[in-house]
Amino acid sequence: MINKALLKAEADKIGVFLDETALERLDKYADLLVETNKSLNLTAITDPDEIVYKHFIDSLSLLTCVEIKNGAKVIDVGTGAGFPGVVLLIARPDLKISLLDGTNKRLVFIKKVLDEIGLEAEIVHMRAELAGKDIKYREKFDLVTARAVANLNTLAEYCMPFVKVGGIFAPMKSSKTEEEVSAARGAIKALGGKIAEIKPLIVANCGERYVIVTEKISQTPPKYPRASAQISKKPLS
Prior knowledge:
alpha/beta
């Protein structure tokens, strides 16, 4: 369905190698995404070339911003249709990926994709604020990512509890304002983290993109994350 030569060329440009198996898996993923989207609203992006750039290359660009060790534990919070988590797994099958979402229909789609392409990941059907307090997931991950629209201070409260001390929280943002990052520094500190670097992504046809590389330097206090209503009503500052 997708132009695999285009995908490989664009991945090469950002320094991410995709072998033939990965290209075939991404092609199958795109096919299932478009087909399932006819009955389940997964994405507004269904043009094959736009899928290449705005879903696949965009997701892969995370690999250019953080060094992820072999066999690292990674969780994609609010994975939706599997971006960036499933794409990362296809590019790096060595990773131990967990895919978390509160909507089961999306996870059923992801499970179908994984079965079709012959890969395995942990599927987690929970709300992030509940999973973040669960001993099975709390402070267990080397890398936590999210491709989300929430402000950084809100997103950090949902995501930082998953990061183990010494690990990285690396949210992918479509825009970066000094106000948002400045407003989040206090929240991230309270959650046990420190913003190390704001990395701009050079991804063709994707507009402004940034990864905010945040280091976990101490444990998150037990009171976080708070209930969703509290997080929304009174974001950390």
